[in-house]
Write a structure and sequence with these properties.
Layout (H helix, E strand, L loop, with lengths): L8 E4 L2 E14 L4 E10 L6 E8 L7 H21 L8 E8 L10 E8 L6 H4 L5 H18 L11 H8 L4 E4 L14 E4 L2 E4 L12 H14 L5 H9 L7 H13 L19 H13 L2 H17 L11 H12 L6 H15 L39 E4 L2 E4 L3
Helix pairs in contact: 1-11, 5-6, 6-7, 8-9, 9-10
């Protein structure tokens, strides 16, 4: 998309900002958006700012579901920025809202989600990656791990697309595995495993109980975890996990078939000895143990049952690796008591409502009634509060025991 963003003005919460220099831009095809990050100069303020825009593209190819997902993505970015401000290493949110495109923008009538934040000192890591000294990398590592540790109890989402560009080169961490909600120690700059809300980045070339010997397998395992949180059919999930590396592995295929055959059995049905599974491979046992903690109620009950099967059939199961009796009790307790939405979700929902109630008209001016008062209810776009599950096309909402993860933005 060839469009001159520099010189454009955006208005948000009474703040008018002129874009001065584009820092990055990319097309998010599945949401029909163009995401732009640019330096900006606010009117009447000396300090520079950074503006993040999510600009809606072709109106004919974007449905209501895409708009809701895009709005939620923008709101989560806002909520996460507010939550992390006290870490001391992230920008400060100055304004957040929505305006509509006029004739000077790429698609008149489309929305623009605007997030204005303070400008922090530093350089674009992508441009100076291989010029950094060891001292500079150490500073980045300290600050990044500090932010991750601050974010961990807040259950914030990690943008997985950034791992290859930042974690691998800056702090020698490249792989992602799921460890469960309660796993991991305090993050320090020397950590070989960095955990964030149950996700962990692990250093390569390290003997790991969670990874096979290549990042490719880890990515396949991560994909399986994401699929699981969407409550897809169980055999599809484990087919993905079991064939991530060896599509012809007969033993793994047998395990998948065994699990699939038991999938539709009522959760309260006792498991007789004739249907006890074979000793599961390490990969399958890992999946059973971790997924039972992360799935919704309907999926978690049979997952929990199968995890117990895995333990019964594997007497030498090590405590720090897989699901044990105490963990089972914890999972049952979670299933009996519905998990409330996280504060991040609540903040994001409030941000969504705020944008929907406080939209601006297509020329960027605040809506006013005949007497000059502000009317914040004139914009009816994206007001549907329903939560749909996307299937395919790259637009997915992954539900994780009350937490929402979204792909594709």
């Amino acid at each position: 998309m060839h469009y001159k963003w520099s010189g454009k003005k955006v208005k948000c919460e009474g703040l008018t900002v002129q874009l001065t220099k584009v820092l990055s831009e990319r097309n998010v095809e599945n949401l029909g958006e163009w995401v732009v990050v640019a330096d900006g100069k606010p009117e009447g303020v000396d300090s520079p700012v950074v503006v993040r825009l999510r600009v809606q593209l072709d109106l004919e190819t974007v449905d209501d579901h895409d708009r809701r997902v895009a709005l939620k993505a923008a709101a989560i970015e806002y909520a996460a920025l507010v939550d992390l401000v006290d870490s001391g290493h992230t920008p400060r949110c100055l304004a957040f809202g929505k305006m509509l495109q006029d004739q000077s923008w790429p698609y008149p009538g489309g929305y623009i989600h605007v997030l204005v934040m303070s400008k922090v000192s530093g350089r674009n890591v992508q441009q100076v990656l291989f010029d950094l000294t060891e001292g500079e990398r150490a500073i980045i590592r300290v600050q990044l791990t500090s932010v991750l540790e601050w974010a961990k109890p807040k259950r914030l989402n990690l943008d997985i697309t950034q791992i290859a560009n930042y974690f691998r080169y800056l702090i020698d961490l490249e792989a992602v595995v799921y460890l469960g909600e309660d796993a991991g120690d305090i993050i320090t700059p020397e950590s070989s495993v960095v955990e964030l809300f149950g996700l962990a980045m692990q250093a390569p070339k390290t003997n790991s109980t969670f990874l096979d010997d290549s990042a490719g397998v880890c990515k396949g395992y991560w994909a399986a975890i994401l699929l699981a949180s969407s409550d897809i059919h169980f055999d599809v999930l484990f087919l993905s996990a079991a064939t991530a590396r060896k599509g012809t592995d007969i033993r793994r295929k047998t395990e998948v078939q065994t699990i699939s055959n038991n999938w539709n059995r009522p959760p309260d049905t006792a498991l007789s000895s004739d249907i006890q599974p074979p000793i599961f491979s390490e990969k399958i046992r890992r999946s059973l143990a971790t997924l039972s903690r992360t799935s919704s109620l309907d999926t978690a009950i049979p997952l929990l049952r199968l995890a117990i099967q895995a333990r019964i059939s594997t007497p030498l199961l090590q405590k720090h690796k897989y699901l044990l009796t105490s963990d089972v009790l914890d999972v049952v307790k979670k299933l009996q008591t519905p998990k409330p939405n996280t504060q991040l979700q609540a903040d994001a929902q409030a941000a969504i409502q705020r944008v929907e109630d406080g939209g601006e008209n297509h020329n960027g001016e605040d809506n006013k009634d005949e007497e000059g008062n502000y009317d914040n209810n004139s914009d009816d776009e994206g007001g549907d509060e329903e939560e749909d599950e996307g299937e395919g096309g790259g637009r997915e909402e992954n539900r994780n025991d009350g937490d929402v993860e979204e792909q594709g933005y």
